[in-house]
Design goal:
- With about 260 residues, the protein is an alpha/beta fold.
- Helices cover about 45% and strands about 15% of the residues.
- Strand 2, helix 2 and strand 3 form a beta-alpha-beta unit.
Length: about 260
């Protein structure tokens, strides 16, 4: 196999949650640019429609699926719609997530449910619903977007992402009988709307960067490039891993 073929996703069918902006949008565009047809799931239907037009301009199929993954009973039907629209599924990228509950002083039960249902429950339900479709495909893969917050012990948000990391490792064993690889990514600070409040605080940003070997934040496209790799034949031997993409921050202090 030629080296270029190792990263070719032609004929692959991928579902990306949280695809309307930030990391999810970059992942969707990256997978389509590598040859995959994509199903785009998120709450913002208008943004999804704009992204679908851009992806179709690449000559790839793009299905739009309005979805709030925190509404767990809607996740399975959305997976079914994605598989129907694409003719099956080879790749599931669980990217949808929300920030919040950075500390441990939890006083608002609905907010707790919102964070845990979105960041963890939605991932679990999507994986289980997608499993039959992925099992019918060859060399299928689940890629879950966790966070460096999981390794830093950053409040309830970090705990929700640690649950994603643990789930990925466990599923990599259980889903292996169906030939499904399971991998998680742990991004550090990425230039997205969700983390704009951090970059808006110069002192906080500088402190964080002083504990980051690369001395900068990542772009969404850098995270997407790793997802393209993990979805490709080049990563066929990668499963059960949690890959840090944090500029070296994982080895520094909690700040």
């Amino acid at each position: 196999m030629k080296s270029n073929d190792l990263f070719d996703l032609s004929g692959r069918r991928a579902l990306i949650t949280g695809a309307s902006r930030g990391i999810g949008r970059a992942i969707a565009f990256g997978l389509a640019s590598a040859g995959a047809d994509v199903a785009l799931a998120a709450r913002d239907k208008e943004r999804l429609a704009e992204l679908a037009v851009a992806i179709r301009g690449l000559g790839k199929n793009a299905c739009v699926l309005p979805l709030d993954v925190s509404k767990l009973d809607t996740v399975g039907p959305a997976i079914d719609m994605a598989a129907a629209g694409l003719g099956g599924l080879d790749v599931l990228v669980n990217n949808a997530g929300v920030n919040g509950l950075g500390g441990f002083d939890v006083m608002d039960a609905p907010e707790f449910d919102r964070v845990m249902d979105t960041n963890f429950g939605g991932v679990l339900f999507a994986c289980e619903a997608a499993r039959p479709y992925l099992a019918d495909a060859e060399n299928s893969v689940i890629i879950n977007i966790g966070s460096i917050a999981a390794t830093k012990g950053v409040g309830v948000y970090g705990a929700s992402k640690a649950a994603v990391h643990s789930l990925t490792r466990g599923m990599s064993r259980d889903f292996a009988v169906d030939g499904i690889r399971c991998v998680a990514l742990a991004p550090g600070q990425v230039e997205t709307d969700m983390t704009a409040h951090v970059r808006a605080d110069p002192e906080r940003l500088q402190l964080m960067l002083s504990h980051t070997a690369r001395g900068r934040v990542a772009t969404p496209e850098e995270i997407a490039a790793t997802v393209v790799y993990l979805a490709s034949p080049a990563a066929d031997f990668v499963s059960g891993a949690v890959l840090a993409i944090d500029g070296g921050r994982d080895f520094f202090s909690v700040q």
